[in-house]
Amino acid sequence: MFEKYIPKGNFSISYEKNVLYYDHFIIVNFRYNLPGARTNLSVSQSRNSTITSESAQGSLAFGGANGYVYASNNSSASKGGHLLHPFLDLNNNGRCDKGEPMVKLTNVSIMGGRVTFNEKDSIVHIPDLNAFTTYLLEFQDNDLENIARRFRRKIY
Fold first, then answer.
1. Are 142 and 106 in contact (CB under 8 A)?
2. What pLDDT, on the 0 to 100 scale, is given for residue 85?
3. How many CA atoms lie less than 13 Å away from 2 in the CB half-sphere?
4. How far is CA 63 from CA 59, 60, 69, 73, 129, in A?
5. What pTM, to 2 d.p., does this model score?
6. Who contacts 75 (Cβ-Cβ below 8 Å, separation ≥6)?
7. End-to-end CA distance of the chain
8. H-type helices in 1-123, by residue range?
9. What is the C-alpha to C-alpha distance for residues 41 and 52, in angstroms, rounded to an integer?
10. Residue of 133, 142, 140, 84 whose CA lies nearest to 113
11. For the chain, where are the E strands, in sequence order?
């Protein structure tokens, strides 16, 4: 068997001899990880036949604000996520009222998860969260644009 690793994938060739049935097999396999899917192409050649196989595994999650689409090589079945809409609460009522500006964040920490930021708006996306799992979400005051502003709570 010969196997060569390439960035985001691998290539392999193997040879098998079946002495009981006097048959030979040559198998060529190519795997590659795309941003939204894992792909596989396999060709097997024997004395009597050629077998090809193709597969792709991954998921797309639609929803959120501004037509957000999240692509992943892993299955998102039975997973969830959060969208954070950070805003400056001018009247201190805990709700985003008309005229209260959004706050752009560039750094949010979550233990056990991954955070993505949308360049077009201030919405923070936290995809691929498992059910019945506790996550620790942390904000830093030095991430805010105005040094006079502070988070009311830094850890959730």
1. no
2. 82
3. 5
4. 13, 10, 7, 18, 15
5. 0.61
6. 57, 58, 59
7. 50
8. none
9. 8
10. 133
11. 2-6, 9-18, 23-34, 37-46, 50-57, 59-62, 69-72, 79-84, 108-111, 116-117, 124-130, 136-139
Give the Cα separation of 142 and 149 in Å (integer): 9
pLDDT for the residue numbered 144: 79
Cα separation of 28 and 31, whole Å? 10
Contact call for residues 3 and 12 (beta carbons, < 8 A): yes
Domain extent listing, the chain: 2-57, 59-143
Long-range (24+ apart) CB contacts under 8 A made by 47-54 are 47/23, 48/23
124: pLDDT strictly greater than 80: yes
Overall average pLDDT of the 71-99 stretch: 81
The band of 40, judged by pLDDT with boundaries at 50, 70 and 90, is very high
For residue 43, give both structure tokens: 């060709």
Tokens, residue 120: 């077009």
State the residue for tokens 């005229």.
99
Per-residue model confidence (pLDDT) at position 66: 63
How far is residue 103 from each of residues 63, 68, 140, measured CA to CA in Å? Answer: 21, 19, 13
Strand 124-130, strand 79-84: pairing: antiparallel
